[in-house]
Write a structure and sequence with these properties.
The complex is a heterodimer of chains A (227) and B (105). By secondary structure, chain A is mainly alpha-helical. The radius of gyration of chain A is 19 Å and the shape is globular. Chain B is mostly helical. In chain B, helix 4 packs antiparallel against helix 5. The radius of gyration of chain B is 19 Å and the shape is elongated. Classes of the chains: A mainly alpha (227), B mainly alpha (105). At the A-B interface, helix 2, helix 3, helix 4, helix 5 and helix 6 of A face helix 1, helix 2, helix 3, helix 4 and helix 5 of B.
Chain lengths: 227, 105
């Protein structure tokens, strides 16, 4: 089996997805540079968290002065979808060397998961699988670092009067539409958004978590009813 | 300082979530009741982040476009996102709509 090609294959498979990721990274950098979080810590989120939606929510909530525990809880709820990816990849990763099982989860993303799990249905060689995932994940990691870094540099030059903070909800609008593919998912979104608005007066910014949990519960209920 | 600690804790927590079934829990079968709620995390959280941010001003629901152009700009962005499924197109039209509404209203 063509092992080195695995890296190239993974990189090629993920590259169409960069069309969506790069503008998102630019926006994240711009918003971070303009927020009270600042350029240094803003960029550090790309290295330390490396998950766009969670980074954006973290910067938004820190900028609003929301209580630390709520910021952490929100980011970890957003990232809890990785539990699902981790579960799906585990049978394949079990065949990888120990170092790979500890290092590769750091670069696990929506995109790397999506292209890998599709390819894993077609191949059996563990070394090829590992290289494919590495190629896909590192291509995304590198592009993300570059895009957020450029965004930080550009953002520091742009005037506040452009209302560029509005790009935060706009990114979430785009992500929202991409994740609503079924009726229960639509129910989860409508109930989650509705409760978050009603619960907004709750202390410590807890309205967001209450809305999210309400939306998730509504999605599960809708799934039970429709299936 | 607190912000840096928050980022660090989120980073560690996110790594543990990514690592969960691969390294810690092992690859035993995950029950459906545990996976089902995870499917609705993304739409619920994204909507909960957007709705208050664009509909509320100092805690009050403001829908009139003249007072809250962001709400109308968001509806336009929502329609564009639906049609194009493109993050870039959503950002560009949403910002253009906001600037236009701010200039006109």
């Amino acid at each position: 089996m063509q092992l080195k090609e695995g890296v190239v294959d993974g990189s090629k498979a993920v590259s169409p997805l960069l069309i969506a990721t790069v503008p998102f990274g630019l926006v994240l950098g711009i918003v971070a540079a303009e927020s009270s979080v600042g350029p240094v810590l803003g960029y550090a989120t790309s290295i330390i968290i490396f998950a766009g939606a969670a980074q954006l929510a973290t910067i938004q909530l820190l900028d609003e002065g929301i209580v630390a525990a709520v910021v952490v809880a929100t980011a970890l709820v957003i990232n809890s979808r990785h539990l699902m990816y981790s579960a799906a990849l585990a049978p394949h990763f079990r065949e990888f060397p120990r170092w790979a099982r500890y290092v590769l989860p750091y670069v696990l993303t929506d995109q790397a998961f999506a292209v890998s799990i599709v390819r894993y249905n077609e191949v059996t060689d563990p070394a090829y699988k590992r290289r494919f995932f590495t190629g896909a994940a590192l291509t995304l990691w590198g592009s993300w670092q570059l895009a957020t870094f450029v965004g930080i540099v550009v953002g520091a030059q742009l005037p506040q009067s452009l209302s560029l903070d509005f790009t935060i909800p706009l990114v979430f609008v785009a992500l929202l539409v991409l994740t609503v593919r079924s009726r229960p998912e639509l129910v989860a979104a409508l109930v989650g958004g509705g409760i978050a608005v009603l619960a907004a007066p709750a202390p410590y910014g807890l309205g967001l978590i209450i809305g999210a949990l309400g939306g998730i519960a509504a999605g599960v209920a809708a799934h039970r009813i429709t299936s | 300082m607190i912000a840096a600690v928050v980022v660090l804790i989120i980073g560690i927590g996110t790594y543990l979530e990514r690592m969960s079934f691969i390294g810690i829990i092992g690859d035993r079968e995950v029950p459906e009741w545990a996976l089902l709620p995870l499917r609705y995390v993304a739409p619920a959280v994204f909507a909960a982040l957007v709705a208050p941010a664009v509909l509320l001003q100092s805690g009050d629901l403001v829908l009139a476009p003249s007072a809250n152009p962001r709400a109308l700009a968001t509806v336009i962005a929502l329609a564009v996102a639906w049609r194009t499924r493109s993050v870039a197109a959503t950002i560009v039209t949403g910002m253009a709509a906001l600037w236009l509404l701010q200039a006109v209203l």
